[in-house]
C-alpha cells in the first residue's frame, strides 16, 4: 500500500528517446535519396529562358552543379561554351546563371567588367543563329568557380573574351 500514496518522481527519459528516434527518421526521409540526373540537351533553336542569379549555397545545389560540371566536361565537342539551360535536372531545365567554358572553368553568376575601351569583332553562334558583334578586347570575369565554389576574378583577352562575353550576354537575355 505504500506505493499507492508515495509517488515516485517520473523520469521522462523514454520520451527523449522517442523524440530522437522520430527526428532521426524524419531527417532520413527528408534527405534526398540520390542526386538528380543531369542530362545535356544539344540546343536546336534559341529559346530565351528566365535565368536566376540566386545561389542558396546548399549542399544539394552544390552537388548538382558539380555534377553539371562533370557532364559538361565530356560534352565539349565543337562548342566553345555550354550554358546551364542546355542541361536538365531530372527532366527540368536548369535556370541557374551558369556556363562552362570548354577547356576552362564552369562559372556560376558570372559578371563581366571591361578593362580597356579597345574593341574586337566577335563571331558568335548559338543554336544555329550566327552573329558578328563588336565586344571589348580585354575584360575581367567575376563569378564563382563551380569546382570549389570560390569567387574568381580572371582577366580575359582576345578570343576568350569574346567567348565569355557571349556566354554572359546569352544568359542575361541580351544576345
Write a short abstract of this structure:
With 175 residues, this protein is of the alpha+beta class. It is 29% helix and 32% strand.
Could you characterize the architecture of this molecule?
The protein has one domain (36-171): Peptide Deformylase (Alpha-Beta Complex). Helices cover 29% and strands 32% of the residues. The protein is built from four helices and ten strands. The protein has helices spanning 2-5, 13-30, 59-73, 159-171; strands spanning 38-40, 81-83, 87-89, 92-93, 98-101, 106-114, 119-126, 129-136, 138-145, 150-157. It has a five-stranded antiparallel β-sheet with strand order 2-5-6-9-10, with helices on both faces. A three-stranded antiparallel β-sheet has the order 1-3-4, covered by helices on one side.
Helices and strands in order, then pairings?
Layout: H1 2-5, H2 13-30, E1 38-40, H3 59-73, E2 81-83, E3 87-89, E4 92-93, E5 98-101, E6 106-114, E7 119-126, E8 129-136, E9 138-145, E10 150-157, H4 159-171
Antiparallel strand pairs: 1-3, 2-5, 3-4, 5-6, 6-9, 7-8, 9-10
How can the largest sheet be summarized? 5 strands, antiparallel
List low-pLDDT spans: none
Supply the number of structural domains.
1
Q: Treating each run of at least 4 consecutive H or I residues as one helix, how many helices?
A: 4
Strand content: 25-35%
